[in-house]
Every structure is written in C-alpha cells, then in structure tokens.
Amino acid sequence: MNEAAEAAGRSVSDYLSDQPDLNRDILEMGERLGLPGVSTSQSRGAELMVVPKDVGPGDNVDLNANGLPGGVEVTIGVRIGEEADFRTISRARTNEAGLLEATVPVPEQAQKGEKIAVAVETVDGRVRVVSEPFDVGPTTD
To answer: What is the mean pLDDT of residues 36-45?
Structure first.
C-alpha cells in the first residue's frame, strides 16, 4: 500500500481516504484477524460471501462463511428465483474457529437472469446465514 500511495504522490492515509472500498476491506480483514491497532466494530454475527457472482448453471461458486459454531456439520442450500424454501445441495463441516470454505455448483435448473441465494445452516438448525442474492448469468459452454 505504501508503494501504491507513493506512486500516486500521496500518504497512505490520503490514498485510503480516496479509496473507501479498499480502506473498508483492509479494516474488515484486520478486525476478522484480530490485528492489534484495528478497532473492532459492533459484532455483525455470522456472514456468508459467494465468489464469483458471475456464473451460470453448473458453474462452481466458492463459499466463505465465518461466525458459525466451530467444528460442526452444516448443510448448504440454494433458493432459486421466487422459491419459498432452500433446497439442500451439499454438506460440509466448519473448522474449529467457525469458518467454512466450500465450493458448490449452481444448480442446472437455474435460468439466466434469475436470482439465486445460498444458505449455510447448522444441522441442528440453530444458526443459519444467507448470502446476498445474485443473478445467474450465461453458461460457460
């Protein structure tokens, strides 16, 4: 970051002020890792991120969840379009820190332009976290 700021002829703090998304990402990473000097904000609880979001039916997406109970089995489900319920597509286990990294396919039934959301839920049903819905794109044939 220091080199990027110097290349722009600015200080790191000025550079980050002009790059609010980068600044937020760095602060969130520091909070998650518990780095000294990074103030922690109010707890947000569990969260689930889906990467990439530009995918078609059958394409894989990576799931990154945190804030879940450690060392527990979870179900991974999807809700396509206006469906009322999530359907289970996979199972996984969180690590001891309550983190989950998994890769799952976008169901073949998903159609271009539909919204899809992913949920991770403990098998005992006590904790559920749902991703922001994202659009299904074209297939990668």
So the answer is: 58
- Choose the weakest-confidence range: 30-39, 90-99, 127-136: 30-39
Paired with 77 in beta bridges are 88, 119
**94-131 residues labelled b (16+ CB within 10 A) or e (exposed):** beeebebebebebeeebeeebebbbbbbbeeeebbbbb
The CA-to-CA distance between both ends of the chain, in Å, stands at 38
SS3 of residue 114 by DSSP: coil
Tens of pLDDT, residues 64-108: 999 899 999 999 999 999 898 999 999 999 999 899 999 999 999
The whole-angstrom separation of Cα 76 and Cα 40 is: 29
Q: Are 138 and 114 in contact (CB under 8 A)?
A: no
Residue 18, SS3?
helix
Give SS3 for 85.
Answer: coil
